[in-house]
Amino acid sequence: MIRASFRSFSMIGLAILLAACAQVQTTQSGLVGVNRTQTMSTLVSEAELNQQAAAQYRQILSQAKAQGALDTPAAQTRRVQAIARKLIAQVGVFRPDARNWTWEVHLLKSNEVNAWCMPGGKIAVYTGLLDKIKPSDAELAAVLGHEISHALREHAREQVSRQMAANVGLSILSAVTGSQAVADLGSSLTQVMFTLPNSRSNETEADRMGVELAARAGYDPRAAITLWQKMERAGGGGQPEILSTHPSSQSRIADLKQASEIVLPLYQGRKS
């Protein structure tokens, strides 16, 4: 009877998961050929996630302003925003509707070596990235292009979708077996089997799209290679915060070299 009930619950859970998922393509492929079909949960809409991101962004900016850590120093802020504007002007090649996003770019005073772009185009760069890595304009464009690409591909929504699917499945399994240990084990297995491989895919997509955005904006795409090499060296005995969510490796460097060569004519064409 327990086995029959488990099978019934499993089939119901599978039906729920399948019904709540859709195969989508969030962006056009560009020259770099990013064309992986993505699976998104219909329970997590783009609009809802963008709304949540905007609210969190406002809170972060409010806290930074209260601490005197928002958009200072002014010269660094102007530099970051100028480079970001050039990149944002190119987003239509991958996603025409992103031209109409309410883009925002701010500098946060922090020792962290970090930068990110929330869903809907909410960008933050930390002064630690500028002070410790000392990126050239082209290297900073590589960072920003990478982060913008995560938003264009809706990688955050994709990850939330995966997590929601895993949680639904584990809740059903745990309810049937009555075992929290099963849920914990299942959570670890789900992370290893699904989250990590897809995260690597997401990073590769953001790398490739980022160098194309940079090249189209007039920045040498090969700077992405020197940037990530600097990031690794800056770690010393530890690891820059940005590398905790953006792992680097020799295979990544090799892929960046290949992608940079593909889009190099775009950069060279803008120079001539």
UniProtKB/TrEMBL annotation:
Cofactor info, note text: Binds 1 zinc ion per subunit.
Signal peptide: 1-22
Keyword Signal tagged: yes
Swiss-Prot/TrEMBL cofactor(s): Zn(2+)
Originating organism: Castellaniella daejeonensis
Keywords assigned: Hydrolase, Metal-binding, Metalloprotease, Protease, Signal, Zinc
Taxonomic lineage from the root: Bacteria, Pseudomonadati, Pseudomonadota, Betaproteobacteria, Burkholderiales
InterPro entries the record matches: Mito/Outer_Membr_Metalloprot, Peptidase_M48
Any Pfam family matching the protein: Peptidase_M48
Cited CDD domains: M48C_Oma1_like
Peptidase M48 domain boundaries: 75-258
Alphabetical list of PANTHER family matching this protein: METALLOENDOPEPTIDASE OMA1 (PTHR22726), METALLOENDOPEPTIDASE OMA1, MITOCHONDRIAL (PTHR22726:SF1)
Family indicated by similarity: Belongs to the peptidase M48 family.
TM annotation in the entry: none
Protein's recorded name: M48 family metallopeptidase
